[in-house]
Amino acid sequence: MNENICIEQSATLHRALAALDASGIGIAVVVDPEGAVTRTVTDGDLRRMILKGAKLEDLVNTLPPQPPVTVPQGTSRTDALSVMDAHHINHLPVVDDANRLVELFDRKSLSKRIFLSPPHLGTLEREFVEEAFTSNWIAPIGPNVDAFEREMCDKIGVKAAAALSSGSAALHLAMRLLNVGAGDRVFCSSLTFVASASPITYQNAEPVFIDSDPDSWNMSPRALERALHDARAEGRPPKAIVVVNLYGQSADMDPIIELAQHYDVPIIEDAAESLGGKYKGRSSGTFGTLGVFSFNGNKIITTSGGGMLVSDDSDLIARARFLSTQAREPAAHYEHKEIGYNYRMSNILAGVGRGQLKVLQERVDARRALFETYAKELSDIPGLTWMPEPDWSYSNRWLTTCTFDPNASHVEVAALVKSLADDFIEARPIWKPLHMQPVFQGCTYYQHDNTSVSEVLFNRGMCLPSGSNMSEEEISRIIDKIKLVAG
């Protein structure tokens, strides 16, 4: 807190003017000898006093009495702004139990929001976008798209990639490429965003949901094995397995791949959240027949909206490009023999992606460092545990996620999320498992063992703000609020 904003009752008007000048905010707080707040004073207050004949040598306590508007320490930003609105003021003293000044809220900084995972743009993106403008190559496909695909392949170590309009588009095309159709079943992680499973229904197929394992929060090999065994016994093997890499961390791929090969089922690796993460040193998203990435605005790198479908099968990616450009046949006129989609990424957005991809490791490093800060600073909170990172995993920590054990903590996740929201800090519960979603009511679900791990995580877990461009002030603000509520 800027100490220049405090002046004693015995100070002169000249001293008060000097304090206002030094603080640069147009307001000072008057305190008595014990430090208790007695009023605030503004430039206008002093100007009016002088115009009425007061001298600069007169004391501040000659100002007309004016009971101060204050709020107690711990008042939420939402409530503080309501007080400001009610009294038509832009500054508000925060006081402790002895009425001593703790902080001075100002409207501009008070209303600043901290988002869960905001975009983090740099300077390189502009260069590639400028190329698109200069060449007038704005529409889908173009040099940036081709280069973005090549650079992605080089970055993660795959043979082919198709830049698309979204991760959801990539998942949908993956279903088409693997011939998922009406009456088929596709196994899918349950603890994930709805977009992981929606493309199954686009193809009129049936999702079957698989629980998480407690070691990684991702698809449980134990539950998957039971599901595959039952499917073979029923004579209805799945057409594909959608393995989701949650919150930046890979699933335990070795046992999942072994099961998929044993039952001859292809894997779609939904790595929408895990670009930059690794499994046993190999890039996330490169283990399945097809891999999917998202570049939505909240992802670790962004193209505003966009996605990528990758594979070591170049023929599959070639067909993905064909289907994503309305399945237009190579003819001088517009010839179509099957239904396609308008799913290609624009040359402008691909330029943004190229610039973002170059700083991917920096973004991963920043988010991992933020996680370490949270883990260190909040280590004393009872019952709080973090999403585990097994020895085989290198998580990009896209989101820092934690749980509160109800047997050791008084924290209710919903209440903590609301308390943070009242201070304009965005936090969220863990994904609600898809088998619990009304839209998938009646779908088959295989849990890990006697306990549904995904349901436990949903009931106890939350995601903290994890932007790679958050300031130290913002990080401290989040940590202080959590300590106040959960400590």
Arithmetic mean pLDDT: 94
Q: Percent range for helical residues? A: 25-40%
Number of strands: 21
Strand content: 15-25%
Quick one: overall form?
elongated
* Main sheet makeup: 8 strands, mixed
Distance between the termini: 24 Å
Q: Which spans of ≥5 residues are poorly predicted at pLDDT below 50?
A: none
What strand order characterises the main sheet?
A: 7-15-14-11-10-8-9-20
Question: Structural class of the helix and strand makeup?
Answer: alpha/beta
Tell me the number of helical segments per DSSP (H or I, 4 or more residues long): 16
The whole-angstrom Rg is: 28 Å
Assembly annotation? single chain
Protein described:
The protein has 487 residues and is an alpha/beta fold. Helix content is 36%, strand content 17%. The protein contains 16 helices and 21 strands. The protein has helices spanning 13-23, 43-51, 77-87, 107-110, 124-135, 143-156, 167-177, 198-202, 221-234, 253-262, 314-324, 347-357, 360-377, 413-422, 453-460, 472-486; strands at residues 6-8, 27-31, 37-42, 71-72, 91-95, 101-106, 160-164, 185-189, 206-210, 240-244, 267-270, 278-279, 282-283, 290-294, 307-311, 384-386, 393-394, 400-404, 428-429, 445-446, 461-464. Strands 7-15-14-11-10-8-9-20 form an 8-stranded mixed sheet, with helices on both faces. Strands 16-18-21-19 form a 4-stranded antiparallel sheet. The longest helix has 18 residues, at 360-377. It is elongated and about 95 Å long. The two termini are 24 Å apart. The mean pLDDT is 94.
